[in-house]
């Protein structure tokens, strides 16, 4: 037996911004907690393991924040001038920071003590990083050099001085302890291998001063930002340019990976942070900040997003927990709760009944969850029973009528198909007639539903033209007429514009191909045309009023 | 200006074939199985179904065909069970044959001799050697006379002028003395005869015409249905002149069939509402079985009272079990109910089979209309239905008593050259309301799921009726497919597949690329050249040639000799690619599109050309005329290679060249690679073919084991229940309904760009474990009962090893090896 097929509700695609999985995901960030520092926030680094402490370097100090409490966990102030680029080791025990006097300082987070000072750079050091093996440090300095230091012996192993301007960006490979990248204001990004001390292995031209670089976890691709551009380079192909993306309208200052390496985040001086998909480099979401963004930090679980801004503000945003979401939106959460509460049906196991033994509730009760697949809506139920008036009544409730007019139109369509519209519309009292009339007046201008609405309106007029109406219904009929007249007027205007466009198009096509003798109509410009259906409106005859 | 060209023939040399070898045959297997009511055997294990000249014996358990009995030379008009294992059948010429049901052999043939009458309408067998036959009435047409034939007495006429449908005659026995009671229907009355006692009665009710009658086999109760949907139960109708009647009225449409259960407790009735009603006699309770798909023609009850079979107008027989559920069905080729409500000016093709025959290059099947809103795919090689597809996906609506309610109908179908895309146009129109709906749907074939998935649904693609749909042939795999539609709103539209993929999902959909018109003329026909580089659209008598990629008008072709509007138009194939053959009401002519001249014209045809079909495998083309003449010709010349004279009275609707799987060894050139199928207005298939090719007479169905029909003997006990063979079975890829081992993970690995992959060490073990054969307890059992293939993965080996336990253990060791292998690999990667 073929099952009853549900009434088809025609839904048209909505115009406007699409709600995607990403927008929903990133919209869940709470209102930010802000902390004010004295100077611009130079760099933010997130500890890669729990509890995901955040190292913030600004002015002459490095502060380590607890992302949950937003309190300062540790602060390091042993810098004479500004401190830069504090970075936490992958085990979360040590932190290094560069400073204006050209030193790289190593601190123990637990004891706050200064363990090592790497001296050798002649200019300020803006970025420094631990290598993957945790016993080396790479520093990127304004004296145009990049140096690799040995942690235990506090000595310099190699120094590369290939850049011709300040080196303000750098990162290390996550796989090999010998590979690291540097980006400089001389527009180049260079890849070094500590095993080949002669010089850089890859050098690419970014086209503008490089503000930040980043290497993907797979180590086959690196990204550089600077100016308003993001460039993606293929490392395995020797520095081939894979993509150029320009989504910011001011300088991009920082780069970060999010969502387990599936999304890339860039922050810029235009106060936005853009989130990209790493495969297509399409922007999937944008975060807004009150001030130019200088640095970004995102915890590995995407729970906290920290942004450091030029006016010294640190904004920390948490992802909404479920409890919070429930408190914020109790109505929706109730629905979710209802859904999760499944209806249970208990029944005795078959073999328990047949065999005479003691009852064991663990094995002898089968629990069957109720399946919700055969849900039949009320209007379908009435349609199934051929109760057409009732089916129409159920879709004329204020909620469906106003919020989901497509359902009402769908049921009307089905009634037309079943030749049951007349019987469904006939014999209505004043209040139900007024609800139909207001629905028709509201939706008759909608080109996607117009053909069905016009059909219903014509049938309604046919039924009620000779019957006496109350003043209220009469007023509504006149209102409907008013709507139709307005639509006709509007379509007339549109057709005038269409005619003008046709003249323009025809003249251009004849210029382009003077020899041809025909005109292909249509497609290059598609004006909004509810034309045919709306033109049909004009033919509607009103006998009432 | 275009000139009449008198050119030499450029086509292939016409080898003068011996045309006497070519015959027109009827495809027998595709005939309907619901013309006669089916008959259950006494043990209710088998059901006998008459279909044309054949009788099929089907198992009730499995709904599979067990025997096919083919001895009759005329259509079978009646079946009856004579004894436990003997089936009696009679054909329209009066020849009766007795068959052995168990092995399908003929036992006895005998002609019926009834006063020199040569034509019979229906046949019933009440038992004891007595036979009831209906013959054409001598005075009134469409009426029958009923005769009783006995082996030792002369045939006796029982009634004259009764209705000739199989359901207007019923028989039963009188409880008192066991004498035979026969009832028959006339338009407004029921006539009753008690044979032994010689009682004659005629009962009348009111002006409602009777449609069907049933008599209980043991109790003396009669049920009649009439055109108002009323069912009357008559008690004691043999003796009383005003018998007691009970009224059961639920149906609104005429009752097509009534049937008693064997105990006489229940009555089944059905009609065009597509609902079977089960009445409990003497009580007001009734049960319904709604939405049976198609209107009910006959209802037959099995002798064991467990199962009821219903014959439906969509050529299906459905079995209903005692819990009032359909559990099996025997489905034949579906006949399309002609669409009602078309204007008289429309050709008959539009109502009988609007889609025509459309060849599917993927399955080598043919698409055409099934029930309203459905489309079926028929395999002409095996003469079997491949599937029946719901295109409209709407509830099938039934008429009301004074109101015709139409359903959505599939009007046009087009298949892309690769078979990947299917475009269907469905139309629903309500003439009285002046409102119509039109949907153009694009379906994509999913090879993994083995079905079509809806890709795009376009509402109102044209403002008026769509005349033709055609995919552009000859595209490379990289090019986006393209469909052209022409409609009576004077427009032609070009639809293209648009890639709408973003990072969240992969999506392609169809959208209208160009809509154009030509001098406000109605486009009437559409054709693509074989390589797809040229599109021809006929606007009345003018042919326009377009470049399909840029939609530039290349040329218009018109001539003073051809002024009639073009109805059909086709490009030549193969080496006749340059000829464009057009057919108007009375003429057939060809254009040369390169020299742009009229090549030839044949005027004053006997009747108008109904179909013009090119053979995809050769350069020939066939023109089928309305009076069923067929001409096969090469587009390069006007002289036909072969012509078939008028076949019969029926009118052809559609035609198609169907490629053969194996080319003929000898024969005329146009028949070597394909044969011509023609459908007539009765939706019977005719085939123009060579005599030598046995094609459709061969039985391609595999024999079914007759184990359960064999009597128990010591030898049968020795026979194994299952036979295991080492021969490899072919696994049909098309019908694989679920995926390949690890397909998903390989796919995801290949689809993700290298940059976005996590480090290899992290995904390697996961990936390898996905590729391994999973041996949950379920999979193992599936392997052991390898006869029913329940395992979801592709079976790796199909040759069965004799001992099953050994098979199993071998596999576990294999599995171990695999695991070891992978671990080693994972470690090295780390």
Topology:
The complex is a heterodimer of chains A (545) and B (830).
Chain A: H1 21-27, E1 33-36, E2 41-46, E3 54-58, E4 61-65, E5 72-76, E6 83-88, E7 94-99, E8 104-108, E9 114-118, E10 125-130, E11 136-141, E12 146-150, E13 155-160, E14 167-172, E15 179-184, E16 188-193, E17 202-205, E18 212-215, E19 221-226, E20 229-234, E21 240-245, E22 252-258, E23 263-268, E24 272-277, E25 283-288, E26 293-298, E27 304-309, E28 313-318, H2 322-328, H3 330-340, E29 344-348, H4 350-354, H5 361-364, E30 365-369, H6 378-384, H7 388-394, H8 398-403, H9 405-417, H10 421-425, H11 430-443, H12 450-464, H13 471-512, H14 531-537
Antiparallel strand pairs in A: 1-28, 2-3, 3-4, 4-5, 6-7, 7-8, 8-9, 10-11, 11-12, 12-13, 14-15, 15-16, 16-17, 18-19, 19-20, 20-21, 22-23, 23-24, 24-25, 26-27, 27-28, 29-30
Chain B: E1 22-26, E2 39-40, E3 46-51, E4 54-59, E5 65-69, E6 76-83, E7 86-91, E8 95-100, E9 106-111, E10 122-127, E11 130-136, E12 143-149, E13 156-163, E14 169-173, E15 180-185, E16 189-194, E17 199-204, E18 210-215, E19 221-226, E20 230-235, E21 244-249, E22 255-260, E23 266-271, E24 276-280, E25 286-289, E26 296-301, E27 308-312, E28 316-320, E29 326-331, H1 349-352, E30 358-360, E31 365-369, E32 374-379, E33 384-390, E34 409-415, E35 421-430, E36 435-446, E37 451-459, E38 466-471, E39 482-487, E40 492-499, E41 508-516, E42 523-528, E43 535-539, E44 542-547, E45 552-557, E46 566-571, E47 579-584, E48 588-592, E49 597-602, E50 609-614, E51 621-625, E52 630-633, E53 640-644, E54 652-659, H2 669-672, E55 674-680, E56 685-690, H3 714-718, H4 743-751, H5 760-771, H6 777-784, H7 804-829
Antiparallel strand pairs in B: 1-56, 2-3, 3-4, 4-5, 6-7, 7-8, 8-9, 10-11, 11-12, 12-13, 14-15, 15-16, 16-17, 18-19, 19-20, 20-21, 22-23, 23-24, 24-25, 26-27, 27-28, 28-29, 30-31, 31-32, 32-33, 34-35, 35-36, 36-37, 38-39, 39-40, 40-41, 42-43, 43-44, 44-45, 46-47, 47-48, 48-49, 50-51, 51-52, 52-53, ...
